Amino acid sequence: MIEAVVYEDKANYGPPDQDGLWKKLIQELFEEFMEFFAPNLHQIIDYSKPPEFLQQELFKEIIQELKGRNIADQIVKVYLQNGEEKWILIHIEVQGKNNQEFRKRMFRYFYRIFDKFDKEVFAIALLTDDEPSTQPHFFHYSFYGTTVKYKYNSYEFSEHSIETLEKSDNPFASAVIAGKYASQFKHETEKRYYFKRKLMLQILNKFNKEKQRARIYLTALFYFIDYLLQTPKDLDQKLKSELIKRIQRKGGFNMQLQRKDLSPTLAGIIEELAKDELEKATKEGIQLGRQEGIKEGIKEGIKEGKKEGKKDAKKEIAISLINNEFSDEKVAEITGLSLKVITGIRNSLKAK
Predict the structure, then answer these.
(1) Interval 86-108 mean pLDDT
(2) What is the distance in angstroms between the CA of the first residue and the CA of the last residue of the chain?
(3) CA spacing 20 to 30 A to 65: which of 181, 202, 321, 351?
(4) What is the pTM of this model?
């Protein structure tokens, strides 16, 4: 059974906004983000106090050099379980390399935040390029005895295999897989479609559950993947059809979906399944009404037969139902005759 309200018109995708997609996913699933990318810090954060995503405008002075770059940044204020306030800098390098310029930029973010706001900062860089990096994850500066070494946390997508990621139930494992596919198949439409389909099927298997967080995971990930791994319209339709077949084989959605920002693929699936259910319910209603009408008619026919002294009214009705291809069980239910009698009537009709 599907209970869904779809608010979003199915519009054309437009160019993928990787920055915006990562920011949106991190905001929606921040606790899962920390659990996946920073498990030690995750354990001491007090999630009863919602994280505060600080306005980017506040940090124009800090991140002014980001303009025109394919990067996404989040600065998040959290509280630890002991009540301390901490800041988390999340830097996502969508298409860049772990070169000296990048490492210098990470250092600048840190010292500007530390100098201007005097806040302790946990910094992590996500490097989405699927080509392995041979560069260190720290910035080093030295000039005649004046030395600075700034080390930050990092997560390189290239260092983690898809086979290992598929074993994780954390939704960000699926997001990383999508990022790897996006990097590998930028200009290979058929492969992008194949792996998009594979990933969405895996997500349905993991998160098609009634639990609230599972519903959030499924809708958030479908949105992220739909816009990150875009495919042409003909393949979009093919994808919807194949996913619908899988969902129907598994008995439908085991959840209610009422989010305003359903992805085009998920919105299309919900609409088609809801349409199928409506048609099925309508047919069943008509058939039920027909059967109820027949039952009432039969009751009246039997009453009239008794009034007129017809001893075989039920038998005549049974013959009529058998001739109209009703099953023995249904004829017995409607007429009140035993299955043995109905079978005998059917056999006698065949003999003629």
Answers:
(1) 80
(2) 47
(3) 181
(4) 0.70
